[in-house]
């Protein structure tokens, strides 16, 4: 419980600094809220010539990129509209589709309309993995006494209440009677010109000329809407979906505003980025209507100084380009990373098992050690590359990979540059320490290096926007525990075992605070998994036996730490909470089961959905056992020899293994946690083992020489 207390006390201390900005303020409800959805609209579509109406509107609006990911890899327009309706990720069919159908027109009902099959759509989403309550937006407006209107088929899906009904419906915005706009509290408009410019299959591309013509047509229609609106109207323009197999970030602007400024929300904590579910909360806030509990998005608010529309559009275009490149590079990167690790294991096994002679053996072991250190430094190098503007290069993918390789070489050069290179674990400790410090600093200052990293998170994929991603947590926790082991080794060799144990606990507690604190790591499952790794490392350093009671106590301590962090977060204003506070609220409201079930399902599916990491994990475990722990040609494994020279190494590897295996069970990314942890730990173990063998062989050679002289 020492780690638990050491973590909980700082967390409670940090709680004294809670902020209260933009807590639950709602705008003046006078005037209609008009949501204009343009499926597929991106910021690089807009300029003063092709989109003069939107450009002028942006000059008095809050501006952002819109992340539109819903249930499947590509957000079809109907899925986007249903997500706006629910304020939670929703879809028409609940899975991936090769074809994005156009929204079906609703059935007329008096002056309004009813969406056909809405009850089935609602039931399908209620029983889906996000338990989305389609119809939440329209129902909230109706319960507040307001009326709803939809113009266009897609708009009806968004504005319908839980019965699938909208009060007024027109097939197109041009058909709306001028007086009608002022009579409703919420109007949703479907401007589908960009969407209709593409083939229905949605996988083909169109020429820039054809797309520009579609944008001009959409802009003219939006201009007509803006002209018809009363002066008191609040307008939101959003690119609510993708239109092709190309995933992108899309346009979001909300007016009126005094001057253009970037928007953000508690969902992303990123300047100039909001999510599609935030659109629901933002529209309700503008209407003066409280958002239902089922709405997971948060109303946006301006952040930073005013900007010019041209500068904002360029910035959003750059951000979308970097996100697209990162997204499409992830799969090739992981395949290359897996292949590199497998080649490292094969080369390591060969170097360890072959009976090389004399100087040749020393050179092969030294080369194997260097390559192993390169493998362990790989995750850190993928972060450091974001210090450079690689996405602006004429060949961004090549530039990114070249920069990753360059940073990797620099890290290993630094690790082997001094007298410490002769030590068994010092070079590995340096790489682990650099990884630990970089990851901690990054997450405490906004996680900019994780952003668009191939081992971080991506705004298009929208799995996470702040704090530690699962892969980043796995790398960070492993680096912390191996750094602690390296420092403990330094102290133990100087006769300070008690000090070594204290260093492990203090460093681990500090790292746990970084992991658990909502404004930094905000890691739920990782916090639970980290405590056992820290305590087990300390126990092994202390020379204590590990009992089942220790493991249970560690898990309980991890639960205490994350519960404390979550309920501290929950006590903050809703607009300032992270997902930790939201989960605490779901626990209190009895809604946590859906989230936990979804995450458990994701964990189980991760083994099949991440074949690269699954293969990597299995290969690392086999190599660890067959090549380092239980070889067939030696009485003692190479790793056992390394433990003899650096006993603390066993502690760091044992703690990292425990955290990664528990992380596999409690994190929704499942296999990615041990996959990345082992991809760092095993190469560092190999580096220590090869150095130990070199020292061992040299000592054996010197002994034989002395015997010969005698």
UniProtKB/TrEMBL annotation:
Protein name as annotated: Uncharacterized protein
InterPro entries xref list: Alkaline_phosphatase_core_sf (IPR017850)
Transmembrane feature ranges: 333-352, 364-385, 397-417, 424-445, 465-492, 499-518, 524-542, 549-568, 613-629, 649-666, 672-689
Signal peptide start and end residues: 1-23
UniProt keyword list: Membrane, Signal, Transmembrane, Transmembrane helix
